[in-house]
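FORM 7B: Structural annotation worksheet

SECTION A. Query
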Amino acid sequence: MKKYFLFLFSVIILFSLSSCTKATSKTQTLKKGEGNSEKVEKIPCKCFGKLHRGVNIVEKETPDNELLPSEKERKKIAEKQDKYGLMYSSKVVTDRDKSMLIPPEHIKKFVGKDIIIAKEAPEIDFAIVPERPFFFSAPVVKSKSKIPNTTGPWSNWSQANYYSKTGKFYSSVGDHGKYNAHIYIVEYDPALKKVKVSTNINRILGRKKTQFAEGKIHGWLNFYPPGSPKLWFCTYWAKYPEPDEEDYATGYKGGHIMYYNVETGDVADFGVPLERASWPYHRVDTKRGILYAVGMFSEFLAWDINKQKVKWAGYLPAGMKWWVRAILIDDKTGMVYTTNMDPSDPQKHFIKYDPYKNRFYKLKCHPPKNVKPVKRGEAGTYNHMRAQTAKRGPNGLFYGVTITGELFTFDPDKEEVTYLGVNWPGTERYTTSMARSPKGRYVYYLPGAHGHAYLDGAPVMQYDTKTGKKKVLAFLHPYYYNKYGYIIGGTFSIKLDDKGENLFVMWNGVFDTLEHRKSLDRPDAFGQNSVMLIRIPASERVE
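SECTION B. Predicted structure
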């Protein structure tokens, strides 16, 4: 044990020192075929970082003669299903229809008992994200291991955000690429009804097609400092459980810390804080300026943005292991929470990190036990917290949900968890994103996150914290399939505007036939991402 802590201490010191190394301030020009020229400047700060200005690289579609046979077939089906020509145009369409209030046959038995349905249908904007290329060629580098280097599908895994100054929403998409990979920040402007993407983040990092790259952003997108246009995020590999030695040999070091300026399009790169770690979950304490991230193997990172210095980088003490899909931050106290992934703790107790003491504590409370059969997660036992509201509500509580759909509240002051019942009566309960109304009465969430939302009608849920009622604001499937040929898969990314009137959603979904999709070994609906803005009727959100 003593050796372990000495090793961990040395790791922390090492990366604390390395985080203050000087960055180059020379101008770099990309070689022909690698993109447009750009200027790379040293960020005016005490430590390190590279600021990329004026980067505007437009990616092209893959020529048909270079597509994989499977991609040619996928393209053929998608173009046939795209009844209104939305995929290549990114045209925004707006709908409002009473049929969105009709539940699927197998859900009708729950109406009036487990759920209620809104009386007024919402008005909804819908558009396909211009993620290029939509379809893929063979990998530029063939894998030497059992883990292939194939690309796809396009997908979203990050939490969304809202920029109050302009009224625009932001999320991200990635193509699961390993080489010649693509990651984009996505912007939706409700006023102009326009969706656009940033330059490919891997291009900005200067990665060549023959260098291993990252295909995802997998955590929260946070503006810091509050009110600034700097949207912080980390990058994440798409080769599991991790890249092969041949991939590292191409110069790949690990996941980067970065921000995207939503006003200028500039991108800042703060490098790799922990080599050979990549970040499937991350989040910023926007009150204290600390970026938290957890790696594929539960490496925990606490990085002070203002000092650009590592507070902690490594594993937790024995008996504790940070869950790789949850970081709950109490902005009142600065304490940070997750559930315990260590095998010695089957109840998955909450873990608390105290950034002032730089210490971890296992709490007595734990998530509710699963009481209803599930498709995802472990039935009849304890499952990890998967989503939670961003801040405490007026009652001082966080609202959360487990992998298996158990709703609960978490009281950080008392360190208590209270069970609230199952979030959805159907089988597709997996929920990964939650949003709370400005006055705190309502919590919004969309179950069926991992590609299966359409199987239960793709419901948009509103939980009333005052009455405990669960209300469906709309069933989005089969409406968007019947009209536009699009199967709604699920979302990891929702965000309310400041007034609580509009709910933004970044969907995973696909232009495909239901027959073909359900015939696959994995009927998850991924392939073409879409943005949606749901205008919640005033009568359905009275606080």
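SECTION C. Observations
The mean pLDDT is 92. The helical segments are 2-18, 69-81, 86-89, 201-204, 245-248, 479-484, 514-519.

SECTION D. Sign-off
Analyst initials: ____
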